[in-house]
Amino acid sequence: MKIMLFNLLSILLIQGLISESLHAKKMDSSYLESSMTLEINEEVKGRVHDLTPYLLPRDHYLRSILDTIFSNPAALKNKKSFSRARFTTIALRKKKGSLRVARHPSAPGYLFKLYLKNETEKSSDEVEQALIQRCVMAKRVGDLIRQQGIRHITVPEKWLYEVQGQTKSHERTFVLVVRDMQLFQYKGSVKAWKKVATEEHLHELYAILSRGHTSIALAQNIPYTKSNTFSCIDTEFAERNFRLTRAKRYFSKRMKKYWMKLIVDHKFKKKNRKKIEKK
Questions:
Q1: Can you give the pTM of this predicted structure?
Q2: What span, in angstroms and rounded, lies between the C-alpha atoms of 90 and 192?
């Protein structure tokens, strides 16, 4: 009986995939990600009253360095003042409200995500929420990784640093401090997901994606690192319902089959649990 149910589920899953390929839009991963509206986690939407878990610890060695860098609050005024403060921009994401990703020579091993005053239309509250969201979700993924004993997938530590001395007393200005995970470029990550990923990697990935964390654009948002792990760098969104079948395009032929088996097995187990609960 179990075998018959398993086969039936497999057939339904395959039919769903065929229907999807015939009727859905052909989307690349960038379209999939950009087309999703930003969902703010309820904890963030209601404003996190205690930011302590997400603030850069007072005894962290970076704090004194950042205090010095931002002793002139005009560092975030515009591109020119930002450059004068010795930041080097490595990415500017205009679709995300002109979010800048930058490095600083005084803080090797870390990246900074921030908004310049003259480049974003976001209010200070919106900027604060967007950065807090990344910290909240990074912590959740990190907690899950520890609870599940996940070894092959990591998440960078993320903290908020509040820039002092702003001209408007009611506004708070934050910079997101992110540990640099030493990522491979896109092509290297595509190759790693195809060549490096094993059954154990896929089990760990399923544990993360099935709970709605991070992203199914694996090469961009869970890239390969020089520490031989994959890293969940995208913690921008609250938990979402993914079409998990879409992730298989990154895997080898053998791992594609294994990924589909994982999905079917978990659906079968979930269905059985519901039956037991009804009895």
A1: 0.79
A2: 23
